[in-house]
Design goal:
Elements: E1 5-11, E2 14-17, E3 20-23, E4 26-29, E5 32-36, E6 43-49, E7 54-57, E8 59-64, H1 77-86, E9 89-94, H2 105-118, E10 122-128, H3 137-140, E11 146-152, H4 165-172, E12 179-182, H5 186-192, H6 205-208, H7 211-228, E13 232-234, H8 240-247, E14 253-258, H9 268-273, H10 286-298, E15 303-305, H11 313-316, H12 333-342, H13 348-363, E16 379-389, E17 408-418, E18 421-425, E19 428-429
Parallel strand pairs: 1-6, 2-7, 8-9, 9-10, 10-11, 11-12, 12-13, 13-14, 14-15
Antiparallel strand pairs: 1-4, 2-3, 4-5, 7-16, 16-17, 17-18, 18-19
The structure holds zinc ion (ZN).
Length: 441
């Protein structure tokens, strides 16, 4: 056979393929995977040395809030995707609750045009559901780069929340693609609010937004999904009850789990981190933490996201419950999950299933999420043996803090490759932003 010429060969790594792990050199041509098992005689313009590393498909964070347009002192598409590639993430799906929100054709068009020159990684865009845009959602969800519609049934503000069954059902009847739901029940949240006082301990967050707030919301969404036949993706599932319930509705619903719910445990995390542990739905007690891991192990969870949602230190330090809810996470999810792999909590193959193949499958991302010939040449190269402490000064997000500061982890991202371009190697971001919108089925 004639030697082949590639643009890039990734040499000497252990590849996590959909059908198992294998030592193989990968040939890349025109931004796509051209060969698994390139030979010594083949030539390449660029050789990426991967000896001692594991070569994963480009990992996808399907749940980030990059706040653009918004306050660039906290986060932006430029800085948030910089954080992503430093953390070993090759693609992000970005939430619509920006200022203005992505809920109409004009704002979507702005974002579609803005991303390529400002994103270091590839990019999917959520469109937010509102009462005003319900009739346009079937059109909006088909636009280029749109990963899906996001509906906030609770815990949002202004136009971006639809809390009643009638409004949610109307959204479900406009369009066909899977909708991502923040399912917490707004009525129960509001009813319980007077039980608490400003300045109460941060751990009260678990009591205000209790298990039933989450479970009730998820039951309502799933019932409406069955009634309308519209598939639902329940983001940040946080309770044992929801996980058991969702197992009986795999025909219509998929589930996302957050890194934080697999890593931190209440009430200890509130004592340790104060407002920096506050997110929605809350980090809960050990019973839910154990249930989350059981669901990761038995396949009930489809995707893992970070719910990266930066706030300023001032906003995080406000007395509860006025503390801004949300944590940084896009840069830390890979090292934290690799540490879980090293601790034996899940296999590297399952991590890839949850962080690459899963998001691609749930959202219908074309040619992403697996190492296979013809797919985009996106890779996350990781060093499973490297031990390092996560520090605030490593965080590229301008807000400048991580709830995992001081955590010593084993397993670290070594390089991020997006469509055949090395965009991060050894903690250095390389090249100008050249992200591209993902194509979705
Ligand atoms: Zn979120």
């Amino acid at each position: 056979m004639m030697p082949k010429r590639f643009d890039m060969v990734i040499r000497g790594g252990v590849c996590v393929l959909p059908w198992g792990q294998a030592e193989a050199d990968i040939g890349v041509l025109d931004g796509r995977i051209a060969a698994i098992g390139a030979r010594d005689a083949d030539t390449a313009d660029e050789v990426v040395e991967a000896a001692g590393l594991h070569v994963l498909p480009g990992l996808i964070d399907p749940h980030v809030h990059l706040r653009d347009p918004g306050d660039a002192r906290v986060e932006s598409i430029l800085t948030g995707t910089r954080a992503a590639v430093l953390g070993g993430i090759a693609t992000v799906f970005d939430m619509p609750n920006t200022s203005p929100a992505v809920t109409d054709a004009a704002t979507l068009a702005w974002k579609q045009g803005f991303v390529p020159a400002n994103a270091h990684c590839d990019f999917g865009i959520y469109v937010g559901a509102t009462r005003a845009n319900t009739g346009e959602l079937a059109w909006l969800e088909r636009r280029h780069g749109v990963c899906g519609v996001k509906l906030f049934a609770g815990s949002s503000t202004g136009d971006l929340m639809i809390e009643d069954d009638e409004g949610i059902e109307a959204v479900m009847r406009h369009g066909v693609r899977r909708i991502a739901f923040h399912a917490e029940d707004e009525y129960r949240l509001q009813a319980r609010r007077p039980m608490f006082r400003t300045g109460d301990p941060y751990a009260r967050h678990m009591d205000w937004r209790d298990e039933e707030c989450a479970f009730l919301g998820t039951r309502r969404i799933v019932a409406l999904a069955h009634r309308t036949g519209r598939p639902a993706h329940i983001v940040h599932v946080s309770t044992a009850e929801e996980l058991d319930f969702l197992a009986g509705h795999r025909d219509i619903a998929t589930a996302e789990m957050l890194v934080n719910h697999l890593t931190q445990i209440g009430p200890d995390c509130y004592a340790e981190l104060g407002g920096y542990a506050v997110m929605n739905p809350p980090i809960r007690d050990r019973r839910h933490y154990e249930a989350a891991w059981a669901a990761v192990r038995d396949g009930r969870v489809d995707t893992i996201g970070s719910d990266h949602a930066p706030h300023s230190r001032a906003a995080k330090e406000r007395p509860w419950p006025d503390t801004a809810a949300g944590l940084t996470g896009v840069q830390t999810s890979v090292p934290v999950m690799l540490d879980h792999v090293n601790a034996g909590r899940l296999s590297l193959g399952r991590m890839v299933d949850l962080m690459a193949a899963g998001p691609a499958r749930v959202y219908g991302a074309v040619a992403k999420g697996r190492i296979a010939v013809g797919f985009d040449a996106d890779f996350s190269l990781v060093d499973l043996r490297r031990t390092r402490t996560i520090e605030n000064d490593w965080i590229a997000t301008p807000a400048g803090w991580t709830p995992f500061a001081g955590m010593r982890v084993t397993g670290w991202p070594a390089a991020t490759i997006v469509r055949g371009r090395v965009v991060m190697r050894d903690d250095e971001v390389l090249g100008a932003p050249a992200g591209r919108l993902v194509t979705f089925h």
